[in-house]
Queue: 3 jobs
Job 1
Amino acid sequence: MRRLLIAGNWKMNCGPYDAAELLEGLKTKKAEVDEHVDVLVCPPFVSIGMAVKYLYDTDIQVGAQNLHFEENGAFTGEISGSMLAESGCNYVIVGHSERRQYFGETDESVNKRTQIALEHKLAPIICVGESLEERQKDEHFELVKDQITAALKGISETNALDVVIAYEPIWAIGTGETATPEQAQVMHEYIRTVISDIYSNETAEQINILYGGSMKPANAHELLSQPDVDGGLIGGASLDADSFSEIITIAEELS
């Protein structure tokens, strides 16, 4: 049975001081988490050390928001997989829609980042999803299939078991819009079928597929109740200890 994964993506929020305050609140409310639920926060790079420090004696893990696909070198402003692993990260987000939109991330670079993450025992959370225009043109299924296929190119079936997929309906990120539970389930089920075609049904049934489109306490129960929704990649709600803790509690009740 797949464990639910609740992952907080802080994006470009919370430097070390603000992170300490948020982490203290989260630690107070959710230092212990149900054994069937995994919880993760992904702070900006400058706050990873603070997160590791605050959460070392809790059930909450730490991840990063991006990594470079080279081990080291003249790449000003970049962070390598070995640096993240050494810093105490267990996960890393790869190919977030904002990275694709604003920083030129491509399917090819997502694949390279996925491979290097796995080499360093970092579980990659691979983001896929469509814009409103692509959905309206009925291109969303093919687009997501292409993104997944490209991201997993050259990844062995054994290593694929450490991969997490996050479905981001881009039209629902930061807009106040949310895919209905039924829309989310249809796409998540389709993603599992794509993974099954690449590897096997057995592997597809073991991989977590998260919903990444404005999950909050008000809609978390309905979304997490869907059979192929295995958790959430939480943006805004993860910046509030009460809201994030409430989503974790909902996941615990459903696990």
Job 2
Amino acid sequence: MTDDSEVANHYSNSALLDRIEAALSTAGVRRPLDIDTLALFDEFHIGGRKATDHLLQSLGISAGSKVLDLGCGLGGPARYVAKTSSARVTGLDLTHDFVAAGNALTGQALMVDLVDLQQGSILDMPFADDQFDVAYMIHVGMNISDKPALAAEVARVLRPGGTFGIYDVMAVDDARLSYPVPWASGPEHSALSPPQAYRDALTGAGFRVQTEIDRSEFALDFFARMMARQDKAGGVPALGLHLVMGPDTSDKIGNMVAALHARQIAPVEMVGVLGS
């Protein structure tokens, strides 16, 4: 079981923006910021930018779309959506430090006209009904126990016919994971669920599940390539996931990769259409 305070405590870091600014300076990055450079650390999910792009191809986002990024973090996917489609993207995240740093990066990327990140709970969103055409969440559901309540709240803010894309780490079996992992310091902070729980939550909220794809092979190849690059470079780069995940990044990723190899977990894409 998880609650908002536990999730916020896991991700909070008041020095996050300072650490990012220092790393950008060390790497010699100039302003305005380029979103491809930011993607080295602001798309902190399995597969990074490639995984984001793969999910977005199924969502039908265009320049006229109103898009909601659930659990937006630093806003990497939100900025990518806005840059590639000219859609207006609103991000919502529980963690103040992510939202503050993400809005600062959006400003330095000259994208405030298209991207706005706000603090709030996905289970009680500060939006009126029928506001968005598309919603997506990337590696968020692992922190939300009540999947039916999540799906119902997304259905509330989506317009009829709206699309909801999910890319989450999901449970494959009941074996115990080793902690920490990127989304949890211990089992009491984790809300891993199997794909069936997501399917049931979506259909219960009025969605038709359109696609479901297990991305495990992609994930294992991604991590193998990442480790090969680090070995060749002799260590982690200035701009990397450690900026967001902290000093125990290697432990978090190592435990997650071990669970992927053991088929305890799998990254899964799922897309639902409301009222179809």
Job 3
Amino acid sequence: MKTLAVFGDSLTEGYGLKPSEALPAALERRLRAEGIEVKALNFGISGETSEDGLHRMNEVLKAKPDAVIVAFGANDFYVGDEPDFVRENIETLCNAFIRKGIPVLLGGIKAIPDVGAEYKAEFDKVFPELAEKLGIPLFPNVLAPYFGNPMLTLMDGLHPNEQGVERMAEAMLPHVRTLLKKA
């Protein structure tokens, strides 16, 4: 059985949801339904930025995952962290796993328009450029499968509800299948 670490923020943790409704659990269910034996570990903590992830990186490495999804960024743009700072943090996180021979899927994110056009333009380049530089696969935008659809979000309009998480898992599944083949 392969182990998949899903490392990120509230979008990973399953903010406002039961653990069984969070993204790692949804991915595990879908993969197992296809006959892929996998245990998905939830390393998501609400409110965390990529910088916070640096402080927890060793915890994820100690779990010895066969593959990892790195999915930070929403809180980074929310608090206005400079795109170059976010890029450095995410690159450090990804390289920690790459150096250990652990395949990485980068969960990209695009800033919401509220942050301003100039900031958004700079932030939105971070993930595609990093994936290309590091030679790792990119899931372009973890928000895209649900964001902006009130039927798929919690009352806050930001976090996915159970159906929103299922949409995320469905969209991510082809990337995760490929990732696990590399593990």
